[in-house]
């Protein structure tokens, strides 16, 4: 499997390229690009959230708790006093970092149900519903945020599978097939995750604008026009 640094670097690179494309296609504003980049990078390390006994796993949950705490804080700015916001931030961080972490540690196993396309769909829908219901993003921005999380998540799974093939020794490692799968073969956790995904999807906003914008080929005509420089490469040939 790829290490934490590789997952973080590749997820950041892919998210940056995709976010830049969305900016050029005018799907995202300059301010939203940073959000999408951050969420795609987070999605790229999210599958290791079930590696709760490792240092990267604990670091990931700490980072995830910080992100959630600040998102909750920003969504309530102007509604509460500074003292109340401080308590809200601290409460969110402690709940995510310790309570939810312990639940994950108890009921999850590494490369289990969370190393699957089903989990990518769950976290994408969960991000979309939270972005819309809690953080009050518009439907297009909420769905795009969820898309970046799912994309980063799948990049992580692909990397783990690629690292399961030893090209130098021309052999396939025993870990091959444990990361990139549709869903886990364990019935109980898979059933729970299917139910959670359906609930998260039910709470998402209408995807009509998102589908019409993101999956419309005319949206990307501007990217095609500006893919390569028209006046020569940079300043050296002008």
TrEMBL record:
Domain of life: Bacteria
Molecular function per GO: hydrolase activity
Pfam families, per database record: YdjM
Keyword Hydrolase: yes
InterPro entries: YdjM-like
Protein name: Metal-dependent hydrolase
Species per Swiss-Prot/TrEMBL record: Tectimicrobiota bacterium
Chloroplast found in the keyword field: no
Transmembrane intervals: 61-80, 86-105, 117-135, 141-159
Alphabetic keyword roster: Hydrolase, Membrane, Transmembrane, Transmembrane helix
């Amino acid at each position: 499997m790829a290490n934490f640094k590789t997952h973080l670097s590749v997820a950041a690179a892919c998210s940056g390229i995709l976010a830049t494309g969305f900016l050029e296609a005018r799907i995202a504003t300059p301010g939203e690009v940073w959000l999408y980049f951050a969420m795609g990078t987070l999605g790229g390390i999210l599958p290791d959230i079930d590696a709760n006994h490792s240092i990267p796993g604990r670091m990931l949950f700490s980072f995830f708790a910080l992100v959630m705490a600040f998102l909750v804080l920003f969504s309530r700015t102007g509604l509460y006093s500074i003292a109340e916001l401080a308590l809200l931030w601290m409460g969110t961080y402690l709940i995510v970092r310790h309570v939810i972490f312990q639940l994950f540690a108890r009921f999850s196993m590494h490369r289990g149900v969370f190393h699957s396309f089903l989990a990518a769909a769950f976290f994408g829908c969960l991000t979309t519903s939270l972005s819309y219901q809690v953080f009050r993003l518009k439907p297009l921005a909420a769905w795009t945020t969820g898309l970046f999380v799912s994309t980063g998540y799948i990049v992580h799974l692909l990397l783990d599978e690629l690292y399961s093939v030893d090209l130098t020794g021309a052999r396939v490692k025993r870990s091959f097939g444990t990361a990139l799968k549709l869903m886990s073969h364990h019935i109980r956790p898979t059933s729970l995750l299917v139910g959670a995904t359906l609930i998260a999807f039910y709470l998402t906003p209408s995807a009509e604008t998102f589908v019409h914008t993101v999956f419309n080929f005319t949206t990307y005509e501007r990217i095609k026009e500006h893919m390569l420089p028209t006046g020569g490469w940079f300043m050296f040939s002008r």
